[in-house]
Design brief:
The structure is a homotetramer. With about 240 residues, chain A is an all-alpha fold. Helix content of chain A is about 65%, strand content about 0%. The termini of chain A are far apart. The first copy, chain A, binds a DNA duplex (21 and 21 nucleotides) through helix 3.
DNA sequence: TATGAATGAGCTTTCATTCAT
DNA sequence: CATGAATGAAAGCTCATTCAT
């Protein structure tokens, strides 16, 4: 039973504001009593804390302190710890979609285009480590929260469509082989990059290597592109 | 902070019992058996609970209940919750090593051998979902616990060595290209399989597919082999 | 601790408006009406919520929601939760006084008159269950709030006076015996009815009867009259 | 979700120990680690606190402090605040049953017997003010908790049976009139006493009298007996 | 070896209330 | 007259862990 019923912000209808998380330009020089700003501060703090500590180990107080707001505000805006977590989870997905939406491969040749996308994924994982952390976490929970999201429809990755078109072009040009499912390929591309980041700590300990050094990362990018292109072009002369 | 007088089991020197978790054949009377059996029951329960709930959400009581032992016994045998977690983490690594040790590719031709290893990884993730869960978890913690393990040395995967030899054979036979690092290749192979399992819940929700159906799994195995072989044989005529 | 500048409504001198809670006919413009209406809506909501949930379990928000006003309005009009509760408590007492004032037994013979009053009490409890609830509640608090009421003087029940006069008439006519204290008799009459209502839930559970069925209620009325009249006429031939 | 599952005391099967709340004779001179004693101390404290403050205003800490036990113990033995309240509610009912069971009217003549029972009720309310408080409270909650009690069957008042037999005897002797329902009579007797106690605070404030003075109480006892006997003997010559 | 009793710290959440507009 | 934003205090409950037998 949430405490701020009726008109509490966390109960309000989500207005579409586009996928961007950037706070809208401040019209006035308001410091306090700026609902949007407060909400954004909390969300940003939650992203950092949840990614660093995980859902159960993150204390509401940690988030409040980091956001420099009163604990109560978290409940005011997000209803509960789970509500906050869900909002954060949605945020990282929106970031993903935003990143994937920004790529434009229409002018590239197919091989270049695929390479660009393989790179993009790695860049995304590198730029948004919290995405990796959140996915890890959420999978530990069997995607329990994601499933409940009302914004699920917005999380359809645009890249599969793009991949589909590039594949077609490559096939028409006789560069890529046929019979490749875009979603499968998308997963393969992600896999090669994601696991490298998500398991970097255990792999690092086991192999005694620093997987995150610039050289290692460049190497990995190159390898991933190599792997995927090898796969797509196999037997095409 | 010593929790038990004299030498509590969790303080005793770990005797090497080989990687097997199966309890050794009863040598003495029934009394002695009970201790080992209790420890094993607790560990098995811990593996299940930690994999299902994660470290913080698993309550000592959950484990005790599942193992049908008194809470206190967990402290007797494992010292603390973290001690129990570490033991469980070590157990899944030992299972990994055991599985990887059982493969014998010396009689296969290089391509066959690589394919067998790609399959093996998938089989492992499928047979031991708790391995995937534990790795996910442990990476969320930055491998904090793994790093502390005194058995770290036992966790060196035997597959990298095997891969190294097969690569060499393949290169000598002019089938595989040169300049491929066994550890890098190992990571690539793992990645293609691991992420498919570790992210199965979120991927399932996002794409609305059941990634775990027998057909999907077969397809994935085939694809992974295809990808890796394409990569290794690229440009080799 | 003044909560509102100037003269907030809840600080204004209570103007006598008679015991009626009905809002007086609109004399001026619409604006003024709104204030009274808002206040009345809040009070009515408070009566319902407090009676249903009790003082501590009623949240200011419950009242605000039910009254469809902003939380802040409650503070504006009643100063605090306790202030609101006190106003509600006073309201049920005013209702009691109003009900008791409406009876006219001067034309009845003494027995008839007493019977009418016994009936009246039952009717009151039945019509205003919130009176029963509030009295129960207030007694749990040792009448702490009632004691503080500035309108205490208005709550002197008119029925004791009436009873006194009827008793006298009955005694003069040789129907009723002497030496009966009107207040004592009033309490006896109330008791027979009040406890039946106030304890209806526990009695219902314990005896497995529905005490509120029309038949049960009729029966109880009859019994109460019978009991009181028996008492008053005992030994009068 | 209670924390001490499986074998936590508050989950154990209630063993019938007779209605007495007196702690069993201490076999050894145990001070600490005496489960029964701890449980009893908590219960006694709960009876006092709940009766004095009401359910919502009683803080778990109040009870723990009064019982001089750790807060945690309350959850250990009673599972939750509601569990504790229910236990306390059951306790006052068991006290009621015990009190009512101790009366022996078989040797008295009917009038004497009824008088003794009327007195007994008053004595009960006077000796156990917490009974009055708990009934008041529980009726505010619509008997919600009582209804859930698994010991409900034990709360059938023995007095109704006794009343039934006395009524019969009186009727056979031509002293009491016929057609009187024992349960109805029981309620009437209770009502005359109960409301006097339960509403003593508001009545005291309204009438400016101390209803609890020894004289007032004697007077009330006498009146109640008088009223009930008048009722039963009305018209019997 | 095994177990019931006991503990202290800490976490999420709720609520009445006030600030600022 | 009305409202959204903000706050501090506290309450119930849970958990890992230890004591004592």
């Amino acid at each position: 039973m949430p405490s701020d019923r009726k008109t509490a912000p966390h109960r309000m209808r989500l207005q579409r504001r586009g996928p961007s998380l950037r706070k809208p330009p401040a019209r006035r020089a308001v410091r306090k009593r700026d609902a949007d700003a407060t909400r954004a501060k909390i969300l940003e703090a939650a992203l950092a804390e949840f990614a660093a500590q995980g859902l159960p180990d993150t204390r509401i107080e940690d988030v409040a302190d980091r956001a420099r707001v009163n604990r109560r505000m978290i409940y005011y805006y997000f209803g509960s710890k789970e509500g906050l977590y869900l909002a954060a989870l949605e945020a990282v997905y929106l970031e993903l979609i935003e990143v994937e939406s920004e790529i434009d491969v229409e002018q590239m040749d197919p091989v270049e285009a695929i390479a660009a996308m393989v790179d993009l994924k790695i860049d995304h994982y590198q730029t948004y480590p919290r995405f990796v952390a959140f996915l890890n976490m959420e999978n530990l929970y069997g995607a329990r929260h994601l499933r409940k999201s009302k914004r699920l429809a917005e999380f359809k990755t645009p890249l599969t469509q793009i991949i589909g078109r590039v594949l077609e072009r490559g096939q028409r040009q006789g560069i890529f082989r046929k019979g490749i499912d875009p979603v499968d390929l998308y997963i393969s591309i992600c896999a090669l990059g994601f696991m490298y980041f998500s398991n970097r700590h255990t792999l690092g300990v086991i192999f005694g290597r620093d997987l995150m050094s610039p050289e290692a990362l460049d190497q990995r990018k190159e390898t991933n592109v190599d792997i995927i292109i090898s796969y797509l072009t196999r037997g095409m002369g």
